[in-house]
Specification:
- By secondary structure, the chain is an alpha/beta fold.
- It is built from seven helices and ten strands.
- The longest helix is centred in the middle third of the chain and has 22 residues.
- It is globular.
Amino acid sequence: MANIVVIGGSGEIGRGIVEVLLRHGHSVVAVGRQPQKLARLAETLGHPPRLRTLAGSVGSDAEAEALRAALVAGHAPVDGVVVSVNAPRSPAPLLSHGSDTLAAVLGTDMLTHYAAAKALVPLLAPGGSFIGIGGGSADFVLEGGIALSVAQAGLRMLYRGLAHEFRTRQVHVHELIVASVVDSASTRHFADPHWVSDIDIGEQIARMFATPEAYADPIWRIARRPRPDAAPEVSAEAPTRVQGFRQALEATAPGAPGASARA
């Protein structure tokens, strides 16, 4: 079984991922910023021997490097990493705050994944997987949350780029976009039966770790159940389109075919 690091392991989605991975026999390092939440996670799960908790963050390059050092000090190989972090949701019109607010959302929803990949992909054993959890607002304008939509759209392209640049490193890079409100610990009492649950997400992550070769495309999505007794719908997005930088410039030069389209 694999040794898997779950960043945001004490969060709403992360808890389900940790629980499922343990159930599948993996060893898990649950990483979170708040030791008390990590302690509650371990207590809720019954202090399983294959669970280790570690206080840490990927909020900056320095914090991600510190996390890397702590993982290396644990001496266990890292076979997989899951990044399940997101910004707090506080609806507001896009231009009602300063650019620092938008920068903060981009930092929490997107740059955390970048910092984690930069620090932790080099730790992965050959054949290992790095999987980020994204949100469905990448595909639409979220009323009162356009900054979140911008961040999620950027996150998707980040994962396309990471998968492309890491393609020769014998590691698998994926984003799993959750296109549903999530049935989790805080919403369980009023959840719609069509919603994707934290456990559903965990099961999908477990499948991606078990058979990464079955997930050739970098971006996957898990969406609402078509009916309450059905499984959530899982599908791949279109393959990544890669274009050379000079080719992109030439394609947008005046007079070039399709020059009005920005590369």
